[in-house]
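Quick look at the format.
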Amino acid sequence: MQRLLIFLLLTLHAQFVFGQAERPAFHTLMEMAKVKKIITVDTVAGKTNVLLTAIADNPAFVFIFAPGGEGTLAIDADADGTPITKRVRNPAYPFAAGFLERRAAWAAIDVPESYGIAISREQRQEQRHIDAIVQVARKLREEYPKAKHILIGHSNGGITAGMQTIQPAPVFDGIVFSAPNLSAFPVSWEPQQAKAPIMFITHQHDDCGAARRSLPISARTIAAAGSRFPLTVIKSPSPGNRQECFVAPAPHFFTNVHGEYTEAIFRWASSLK
């Protein structure tokens, strides 16, 4: 009986310790941020929630994250106005910490209301979605008028980013293609069409897409950048299934290498005039 009690106590202690070490990234983000709020923007695609977080009062950069997958962050505010979400382990949230630590503001765009809870690859190229992102960008510019505003389109979010690069008057100071799902572009798009500064970043072991008998995202990203555009290929080990496209950990989400990821993007953003 005594041995059983000791075993149970050790088990509970281990669960507590590992539970603290593996806190959901959203909770960690909320603990880090001094500014943490939901901005609701009335756009042509309906109300669009934007999670805005920051440590510095006057950040030099605002990084705006367009999530991959179906774009769903499910963000809202509680009665006190504190941001909450039903998807606390969304792979989008681990990206934020490095930017906050460098005193940049970080914003993440949820799915516009008219699309329901998810947005498809095809819908990301619709004019109303393009215009909605522009309206979100202008709202964030009102919040931080002196900062450089950088859009990061990750995975399917790369479609959102791509559509912004070809607008006649881009509203972002720079656009990052983060492990972009370029094979899913429903329109003919080439980096040479971009009217805003762009960079590409990928992990060399990102084999997302290879399971569907197409080139993996890493290869497509490298090919798209070619020799004309800034490209960072992260080579440090990243755990998880190399072909995983939807759930971290995986190289597709830059698991365990977010420091290198953030540094590369910051270095490029700082070079923009």
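Next, a different chain entirely:
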Amino acid sequence: MSEAKPSVMFACVHNAGRSQMALGFFRQLAGDRAVARSGGSEPGASVNPVAVAAMAELGIDISGEAPKAWTPVGLQASDVIVTMGCGDECPYYPGRRYLDWELDDPAGQPIERVREIRDEIGRRVRALVEELGVGG
């Protein structure tokens, strides 16, 4: 019998930049060895096109994603909940492991700054994937 796959939720306010980039990195690095979701407290209308472009530079396509609200079911099903700048809006469910990643919001930022944010998210996601033992 196989063990359950680790599950991670990436949460921010608009689910349009940071959490979408984190989800893209996580899916690329962990593949089907883990389950990943993302969501926001106030989902935006679309994923930040500069974030999409910055991720495409690394060969990670997040253009098909759409901002969505986190759900209690998705949060409760997650072993690790990574929050990014949602402050008091961040969800809390007892018994879950929380990581709070303080990262600048890429909204309205030039591509050069979004690349810096992307690269920091990539470093943190790689460390999380390694810690969870779900790397390729």
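The chain has one domain: 7-132.

See the schema section for token definitions.
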